[in-house]
Amino acid sequence: MREQSSFEPAPGALRFAALLLSVLILATATAAVHAQSGRRPPKQPSTTDPKPPPEPPVQSTSRTDTTPRLPILAVKNMKSVGMSTIYSNAALDGCLEELKQSSSVEVSSGKDKTQKEASEYAKASKDTYVMLIQLEQEIDKGTAAVLATGGDPRTLVVSYIVFTPGTGKVKTFGRIYQGTTRGGVGQPVPSTKGIIEYELRRCGRDAADRVLDVLNLPRPKRV
């Protein structure tokens, strides 16, 4: 019988195959390295990067009124003997309320003054007008008997005088009556304390408006 022989590759062929395999592996690895080198990793935030500028502070929209205001000192003098100071205070309060609502006036109040004292104060001042509020009584035949027993507040009349700063001279003056007629004659205001105070306060406001007109200043705006 013939013996079968197995094929065995030559040693040189094995070395060549191994060398070829090594070359292929090396080429594959080199291509992979070049492919990875073309990609750039994302930039990581740096702690040294400059920070955005801070937000500017919010500025207030309110503005301070710098318009010069005319100084006026409002005072009172109770000429009617025996009358309560409640009535003179009501007239002065009405005057002050009206002046304070004007944007063109810087108003203040002080202690009671006579006409002479008010004039001297204005004369000694460089820029302050002095407005003197006084209560007088309107006397007629119908109220003479009442006045003899102590006075009737319905007869009170609000008079005002304004003295000029620097000279003390009279700038303007006038009288304002309660009710619809002079001194309440014919149609007197009711003899009620609250109503009389209200009327005298209104007279004080009217006096302030007249003074603002004389000084060419705007009256307070009414809503």
The gross shape turns out to be rod-shaped
Q: Can you tell me the CATH topology of the domain at 70-214?
A: Rossmann fold
Uncertain segments: 58-63, 144-149, 181-187
Total number of helical segments?
Answer: 5
In whole angstroms, how far apart are the ends? 138 Å
Beta-strand fraction estimate = 15-25%
Helix content: 25-40%
For the largest beta-sheet, the strand count, sense and barrel status come to: 5 strands, mixed
> In order across it, which strands form the biggest sheet?
2-1-3-4-5
CATH class of the domain at 70-214: Alpha Beta
The CATH architecture of the domain at 70-214 is: 3-Layer(aba) Sandwich
Along the chain, the helix and strand elements come as HEHEHEHEEH
Structural class: alpha/beta
Would you kindly provide a written description of the structure presented here, covering whatever features stand out?
With about 220 residues, the protein is of the alpha/beta class. The protein has a domain at about 70-215: Rossmann fold. It contains five helices and five strands; from the N terminus they run H-E-H-E-H-E-H-E-E-H. It has a five-stranded mixed β-sheet with strand order 2-1-3-4-5. The longest helix is centred in the first third of the chain and has 27 residues, at about 10-35. It starts with 10 loop residues before the first helix and ends in a 9-residue tail after the last helix. The relative contact order is 0.14. The model is unreliable at about 60-65, about 145-150 and about 180-185 (pLDDT under 50).
